[in-house]
Amino acid sequence: MEQTISFVATGDSFITRRLPSTTSESFVELTNLIKSADARLTNLEITTHNFEGYPGQASGGTWAITSPLALRDIKAYGFNLLPWANNHTLDYLYGGLEATERYINEYEFVHAGVGKNLADASAPRYLETPAGRVALIAATSSFHETWIAGDQRNDMSGRPGINPLRHKSVHKISKEKLETLKEIADTVDINAVTKMSIKEGFVVEKKDGKFEFGQYVFAEGSPEGKETSPDPRDMKRILKSISEAKRQADYVVVSIHAHEMQGEDKSVPAEFLKTFARECIDGGADSIVGHGPHVLRGIEIYNGRPIFYSLGNFIFQNETVTHLPADFYEKYGLGNDHTVADGLDTRTENNTKGFGVNEKIWDSIVPVWKMQGDKLTEVKLYPIELGYKQPRYKIGWPTLVKTDRILKDLQELSEPFGTKIDIKDGVGTIVLD
């Protein structure tokens, strides 16, 4: 009989405080669950260093930094796989990236999604377990454009950065609206530079029927709306990594950090993410682990493989960073006399808006799934809460809870994917064919 291997995954770990206890009942219960699996993954959504990098002009929202000792606490939970390609990877530029990687290596995590060049950032990384060899590939679709790792040439070095999943967007509108948009473009000269570049030969004129309105692309079509698709360059590169990993490991896990949503609903993934996940599985991946929007998204079982479109948060402490650069304060009209607490109070309008008042940010699940050879045999879903309504200096630690509330929300989110979840004694079980 083929051996069974088990996996556990979580969403984002944005950790800025040290663990208050490793002996509490709630911590032991959760770590026992995590450590019961062979491959154990959490997304590291923070830089870990002692300010060895300069704060970038752009950040993922909050300039994310914590002490390298936080990695000891991540280790205490039992994780052995760390994807860390996300919208905070270069909050402290290359110095922060290089220092974070150095400390991650010191704590002996298998990590992926970031590297000294594009090939390195795209490469599979391997975890050896008694039940089989597991490959991890990580990418992000949410990033500043300057964070993309650069390709290596034989005459020029590459550039450190993240493994990107870019996407293309086309806004479909009626013929009448498209003509109006063209008139507006001519009136305000929004395409003047592009037109001149075409005349001078620096830009090739597009002849695909699409119309560029500044940085946005429009086309005549019905139904009206926004269509998104993965960038073929990135899709091809990531599929190549999956192909490599599939021939070098028993199982392949793909991690994707993605904020992009359908319309204005964070809980619904953008169309290109669904395309990406399914193509990855068609290409040989055994599971897709998504995170990024800080809320749960639905689960799909596609060709006998799980796609977790978002596992929300595991540790979320974005409002207990100790330092923020001048750019943060200037954004909110504050100056040098103001402190981190002043900045956070201003951003949240004294804790009346933002993440702190959205209960769904602080609810999540920890899935545990098993495979026997090539067959998915079990997917269990364990709800966690992160302390909604606690003060910002206490909130953000996960606790296992026996509740149907979170699982019922997940049932509803997963229904469009044809996924059925049975709930019993506060634990969910996905019904497999």
Automatic annotation (TrEMBL):
Family matches, as PANTHER family: PGA BIOSYNTHESIS PROTEIN CAPA (PTHR33393:SF13), POLYGLUTAMINE SYNTHESIS ACCESSORY PROTEIN RV0574C-RELATED (PTHR33393)
Capsule synthesis protein CapA domain sequence ranges: 6-318
Coiled coil: none
Record-given protein name: CapA family protein
Family: Belongs to the CapA family.
UniProt-listed InterPro entries: Capsule_synth_CapA, CW_Biosynth-Accessory, Metallo-depent_PP-like
